[in-house]
Amino acid sequence: MSNPTTTTSHRVVPPHVETNPRLGTWLRVEEGVVLVQVGKVELGQGIVTALGQIAADALGLPLSAVRIVPASTSGPDQGLTAGSLSVTQSYPALRHVGAVVRSLAYPPAALVEPVALRTSRDHHPGLTAYVDRIGTLDPDLDLTTVDLDATVTQNSVGSDAARTDLPDKVLGRPRFLADLRPDGLLHARVLRPPSPAATLSSLPHDWTAPGVTLVRDGSFLGVIGEREHAVDRALAALADAASWDEHDSLPDEDDLASYLRCAPTEPTHATDDHPGEPTHTASYSKPYLAHASIAPSSAMARWSDDGSAVHVWSHSQGIHALRAAIAGALTLELGSVSVEHVESAGCYGHNAADDAAFDAVLLARAVPGRPVLLRWSRSDELTWGPLSPAMAGTLSARVVGGRIEGWSYDVWSQGHTSRPLYAGQPGLLATAHRAGGAPLPPAADPPAAAGFGSLRNAQPAYDVGPRRITGHHVTVAPLRTSAMRSLGAYFNVFAIESFVDELAAEAGLDPVELRLAHLTDPRARAVVELAARASGWGEPLPESVGRGIGFARYKDLGAWCAVVAEVAVETDVRVRRLTVAADVGLVVNPDGTRNQLSGGAVQSTSWTTVERVRFDRRRVTSGDWESYPILRFPAAPRADVHLVASDRAPLGAGEAAQGPTAAAIANAVHAALGVRVRDLPLNAEAIVSAIESEE
Amino acid sequence: VTALTVNGERVEVDRPADTPLLTVLRDTLGLVGSRFGCGAGMCGACLVLLDGKAVPACDTPLWQAADASVVTVEGLAIGGPNPVQQSLIEHQAAQCGFCISGVVVRATALLDARPDASGDDVAAALERNLCRCGTHQRIVAAVLAARTVPA
User: Fold this and answer.
1) Does A169 contact B133 at a Cβ distance shorter than 8 Å?
2) Which of A393, A502, A592, B99 could connect to A495 by a Cys-Cys bridge, CB 3.0–4.6 Å?
């Protein structure tokens, strides 16, 4: 069987090549291997492996002859690794780079065919000569000006290539940022204030502890030392010695929906088509959630001996923006700051990585020439890292004879991004704690072109007649919020897809039937039908077990995904099985795509059934794994993923399943018990209070 | 000075007796395979075998390991990946892989004690190993496939 060949029109230069036109920015040759540098980073999602597959095919090389090297600020600027855009944006860029390279360095077709290159991996003279020729190409070549050989034979793309990073991790080799052990290493910790509004009131001027150096700048306190244990002991002593002015600044954690609805807001009208008088209305809410990465954030920084320049090792999602934010915060030339990416534990959005990087920079400045490895505490990670905002929403619809003929949605939320450089500020936590620092501005919301934040997936995918969609952007920030996997889509899809089920129940229609009756997009219909079929939709279930469905097209322009949940409700909510059907266009790595989709669905099960950031009126109180529980092995559902075969443009998979899973679980609980839970988390307590409010 | 055996080699460590074993492994001995996740023995990322029993190294003071045998995730890979490690790689049973060192250690201890463990047994044994990426199902399947005695 011959491998598929595709030809792409290259009259349009891909945007990321347009902005990074120099060949040498993207690749170089070392020891017979083509080192490809991308601007996307490994967050635990397997992107380095998938981009290697794309690059290998684009270059006409076997996977073994290509290696993706970690991103750094000397490589291409591809913006953030976020929004499920890494494959979508890198696929055309790497194909373009590969096409240029092949048109300049490829062996004549008669001499070596691509398939021959693929099958004769080692020491093939044609292969070696080709790689050598790539090494001689001018690094300053402008990629936008070359005529292209755009025919690509698909060898690696579409295969289940093994993750290149997993052996290191499974065998316990150094791989993560916190594993860096350069010569002269110093360890560091920061003492964060005990509550969001706290400021340092006193610390003895002569405070010292054995084996450490204190760094003090306003309410920003840190310690640096040779030995990690001495640094940890000093941190505990520092916490005892420091006293803080604290005051109440947080809302009632049990009434967040009212808080959001009454807070100062800026309205954002997405749509107003004047829907008619509604026949049904319901309101939903979600609490603040934490990223809860298994590793606390870390970073390493080393200043030059003369203190004029700093190099930073970070697990940030956006190293170029981080670099500019650090330079801005310290009024340095951009060229004085460089950042390279090193992996840490799974990253699910804007966590404390950037803050940790700036902390390391501030502390390392006290010891020029020495690399300083900073690690946050578990408690700081869960309480000081940016949170996914609490949200509230009200949906109304006009239903006539089983047809939806009018729709409105109002959603209240703090902003979904406070990434470095938002609101014209560096946006790094320590800037607020340093002497003369101001509180960080409230989070912004990404614009429509980036898929919105609070309004992400606020539009139903269905034919619902005239619609009115209004976002209420809460402009106060009792807790710091930013992007977490799928942003507002998680809540909006939960609310919309729960409401659609309520409408189906009112109309006496099957939930799948009602959805299909209002969906015209064939790719949407296909995943709904596939999920229903694969899950045994309609087949009988035991008592107290229910099945529910949720569907969305992520950001209205990404992957189509439908999820069916099978949930048992007895003393607690137990998600037994998830059936995920998705259309992500061309699948670069089917096994990796399944891993991402099932992982997203299982993580959403955790958000939906057990998670909630806890606080009193002063302090965030969910600072460990008992007060901020996440789903554990015995409760983790089986998740079966079904992919639609497609040769359309590739779309991301990492954020497609979260919203549909949440709704599928709520709808399954309703199917099992006849009880509608509209306020997350969906646990036994929520079911009891839903029953009470219906009585 | 505390003497202990780490991955089959006798070492002497000149550190305060209350130093967490994890800090000794990572900072003093350069064995960074046991990962720091919480510092309170709640997440499982730093599990090691202490005289054959899986314990969180972050929550084990050095004195408790005196004259004991400590085996880390690196030690389990001496002479090549152990069956659990091999199976996890074959099943691509990780996403970020930060929790996986602890999973390897706990699952190895489980299968040593109970070579016929069931899927429910594996999930129960991993109850205090946190995975945030949602890879639970693959991990359990990989551990089951590593059994030398089929159930």
Assistant:
1) no
2) A393
